Design the sequence.
């Protein structure tokens, strides 16, 4: 089939652009080599923030991200949650020196300037806390702090953000294929004419044709560009996060690692995460894994703020690659977070646009800019963008969880998680219980996953592999690493998707392997015992008797 535009990559930018192009009436094909959000988007810190860090060097980035954060809150109100941050004031020695006080004053002025952007994203203004107030809010902080200044930000389930954009693109006529890789961008007479693709699950290979191609393959872009003869300069930066088994603080806490770089501990959904590193990465993006050193670097920095985290059980160490614009010289954390749309025309590929840089928080604006450019490349008249006005699927209304729990046989916290992930579509999911009350079973105690939710996602959310359910409804992501939910989810998904027993077993092994890749760097004696438990409980451990 011929399209107007082929979009490569189902991260926030690719999925966002697919939605925008489809809403503006273009015939769209979206290809994702694995599943939505598997790249930087789903492995980011998951903050729809304003990027206060970039205010000095990239004020435009801060403003764009704050403005877009405001729009994303409107189109997906169910999926965002507030994360208030504390920036504690520490002194170099016992008793504050003049230099300490100057630094604290500087921080207050800096955060005060950020307050000017807060109304764009419904952020509360900053405030100063005395030591007493600080310890009343966060008693687990290390002793001897002198107070803090606050900062208001927003978090999101970035996997679902990507999936919802892609699903909405499909609802508006786009063809969306996951587990389908663009192997090469095809050219003829100085123009792109389409892509050669391969479906990893069926082995199907083919060509899809279009006069415009939007390359949003993130850290994979330079390699795809090389294969297709169109350079995409980038300086990918690896960022590692740790997930702790529960919320270790009620507030995000910003501090410094041993090398002075900024790190944070923050509550994110039901857990806490520690992040993040920022190091140049020259390897294959498919081989990305956290190392013991990176885990220790983050833990050391976090423990200098919240000593108790040393006692926490780390459940995952996960990483992504920043798609940063190339620059020779600056340290990784000083690189610009601006975005660029690179035109393929000077390299004999007119019609090709490649995106580098940018932020998750401004994905919608980046997608809007890309769509404007795509319309121009196609010689079409401008069509107004509507992605800041039209809600994402489920974003039209946020039902009251207590009312749902009164109407259906589910506990209020389960209804709350369902509403968080699915917004108004929570009702559709609960209606499945009318035909089969067994679907009211809660599969995971950490994540409150309903059997009905797994069935709904398998039916309606472009699930092709069991591991896709990690990203749709957090199967296998909780602190028990799937002991509760993996096996039964595999059975339910298998029933929906027509898998035989062998396929169900293979999918289960693959899901658990995804988890193992995120635990390898944190495994010690106790964690290895937990690992055996996970495999034993899911029936994948070969027992020799
Ligand atoms: C550690 C870390 C923390 C971050 N934290 C934040 C944050 O809190 N807030 C914020 O605003 N930004 C944050 N960012 C930046 C943000 O995540 C990125 O700017 C954004 O997610 C990039 O999205 P993308 O769609 O361009 O790329 P990606 O999300 O990487 O998507 C690229 C996709 O392309 C697919 N793909 C690759 N090759 C092919 C191919 N040949 N054919 C088809 N598909 C292909 C991949 O599988 C992948 O899904 C963070 C980034 C990192 C790494």
Sequence:
């Amino acid at each position: 089939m011929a399209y107007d535009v082929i979009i490569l990559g189902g991260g926030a930018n690719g999925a966002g652009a697919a939605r925008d192009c489809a809403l503006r009436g273009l015939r769209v094909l979206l290809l994702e080599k694995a599943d939505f959000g598997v790249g930087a988007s789903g492995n980011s810190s998951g903050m729809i923030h304003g990027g206060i860090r970039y205010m000095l060097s990239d004020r435009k980035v801060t403003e764009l991200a704050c403005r877009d954060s405001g729009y994303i809150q409107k189109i997906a109100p169910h999926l965002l949650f507030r994360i208030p941050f504390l920036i504690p004031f520490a002194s170099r020695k016992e008793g504050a020196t003049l230099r300490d006080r100057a630094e604290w004053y500087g921080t207050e002025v800096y955060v005060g300037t950020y307050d000017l952007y807060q109304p764009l994203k419904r952020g509360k203004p900053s405030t100063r806390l005395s030591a007493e107030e600080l310890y009343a809010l966060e008693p687990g902080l290390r002793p001897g702090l002198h107070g803090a200044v606050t900062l208001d930000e927003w978090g999101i389930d970035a996997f679902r953000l990507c999936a919802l954009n892609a699903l909405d693109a499909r609802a508006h006529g786009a063809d969306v294929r996951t587990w389908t890789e663009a192997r090469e961008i095809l050219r003829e007479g100085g123009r792109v004419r389409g892509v050669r693709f391969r479906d990893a699950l069926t082995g199907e290979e083919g060509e899809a044709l279009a006069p415009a191609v939007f390359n949003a393959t993130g850290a994979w872009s330079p390699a795809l560009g090389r294969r297709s003869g169109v350079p995409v300069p980038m300086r990918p930066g690896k960022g590692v996060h740790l997930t702790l088994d529960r919320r270790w603080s009620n507030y995000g806490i910003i501090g410094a690692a041993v090398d002075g770089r900024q790190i944070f501990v923050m509550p994110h959904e039901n857990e806490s995460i520690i992040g993040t590193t920022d190091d140049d990465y020259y390897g294959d993006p498919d081989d990305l894994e956290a190392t013991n050193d990176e885990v220790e670097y983050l833990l050391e920095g976090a423990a200098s703020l919240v000593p108790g985290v040393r006692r926490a059980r780390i459940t995952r160490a996960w990483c992504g690659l920043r798609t940063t614009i190339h620059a020779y010289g600056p340290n990784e954390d000083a690189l610009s977070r601006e975005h660029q749309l690179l035109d393929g025309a000077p390299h004999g590929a007119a019609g090709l646009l490649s995106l580098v840089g940018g932020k998750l928080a401004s994905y919608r604006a980046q997608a809007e800019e890309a769509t404007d450019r795509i319309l121009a490349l196609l010689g079409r008249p401008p069509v107004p963008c509507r992605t800041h006005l039209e809600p994402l699927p489920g974003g039209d209304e946020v039902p009251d969880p207590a009312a749902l729990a009164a109407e259906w046989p589910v506990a209020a916290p389960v209804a709350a998680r369902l509403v968080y992930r699915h917004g108004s579509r929570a009702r559709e999911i609960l209606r499945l219980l009318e035909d089969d009350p067994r679907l009211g079973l809660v599969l995971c105690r950490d994540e409150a996953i309903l059997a009905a939710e797994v069935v709904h996602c398998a039916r309606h959310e472009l699930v092709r592999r069991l591991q896709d359910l990690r990203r749709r409804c957090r199967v296998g992501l909780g602190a028990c690493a799937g002991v509760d939910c993996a096996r039964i989810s595999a059975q339910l998904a298998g029933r929906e998707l027509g898998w035989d027993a062998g396929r169900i077993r293979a999918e289960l092994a693959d899901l658990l392997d995804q988890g193992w890749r995120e635990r390898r760097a944190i495994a010690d004696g106790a964690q290895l015992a937990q690992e055996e438990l996970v495999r034993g409980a899911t029936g994948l451990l070969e027992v020799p008797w």
Q: What stands out?
A: The two ends are 55 Å apart (CA to CA). The mean pLDDT is 93. The chain is about 35% helix and 20% strand.
